[in-house]
Amino acid sequence: MTTVDTPHAGALLRAWRERRGLSQLTLAHTAGISSRHLSFVETGRSRPSRATVLKLSDRLDIPLRERNTILVAAGHAPVYPEHHLGDMPMAAISDAITRILSSHHPFPALVVDRHWTMVDSNDAVGVFVEGCAPELLEPPINVLRLTLHPRGLAPRIVDLGQWRGHLLARLQHQIGATADPVLLRLYDELAGYPCDDPVEEIEPHSLVVPMRLRTEAGELSFFSTTTLFGTPLDVTVSELAIEAFYPADEATARVLNGS
């Protein structure tokens, strides 16, 4: 039987400190503990208390899911619950999501989890999925894969080079913040898709990055916003993002409003 060594809590905290580019002295100072104690924690000579793990995790901006992992590695119970959206404690969150998606119609809006899997959407998202390969639309739908896959949305995106560069940059930033191996594999997959359009640099004077899309109603232009839940204390809530799309010009607004 093969056993897998699980990193101790200190090793996990050290990895996050190094990922954030902080010295032991700087982290210890901002967390209000001695650098000697932090050194003992990182080397495994001292087991961190629950309060110390939470304090260091907060200073390092560690995702809630990983904070629970470090707590367990330190011999403590997880602090942050993880509910499904259909669970009773999530009723208010689910209701808020439904209201946001509904109120954003006739403009497209969708909800994704930490791996860019679509959790929910409004009917206006149909403008994006028309013509996409059926296998890309089978749940679970990965929004980035659907967008950049050569049998997905990509062939209809006029400014594919720029939009592709924008999405890959966002994903790369997310990987840097979370160190999620699933996202790293997703990045490698998406970056390997064939694309004849070179990555275009965003114009310095641009306020947003638009996506111009060929549709049966003509070319439509969108920009997007991302909404996160403030100060979440639930793992699921902390990993949800609402991606809302708005018309970037009057012509697109008229088409989406049906006028």
From TrEMBL:
Tell me where on the tree of life, at the top rank, the source sits.
Answer: Bacteria
Gene3D superfamilies referenced in this protein's UniProt entry, alphabetically = 3.30.450.180, lambda repressor-like DNA-binding domains (1.10.260.40)
Which intervals hold domain HTH cro/C1-type?
Answer: 13-67
Q: State the Pfam families in the record.
A: HTH_3, MLTR_LBD
This chain belongs to which protein, by name? Answer: Transcriptional regulator
Protein source organism: Rhodococcus pyridinivorans AK37
Q: Which PROSITE patterns match?
A: HTH_CROC1 (PS50943)
- Supply the SMART domains for this chain: HTH_XRE
MF terms from GO for this chain are: DNA binding
Matching entries from PANTHER family are given as: BLL4672 PROTEIN-RELATED (PTHR35010), BLL5781 PROTEIN (PTHR35010:SF4)
Taxon lineage: Bacteria, Bacillati, Actinomycetota, Actinomycetes, Mycobacteriales
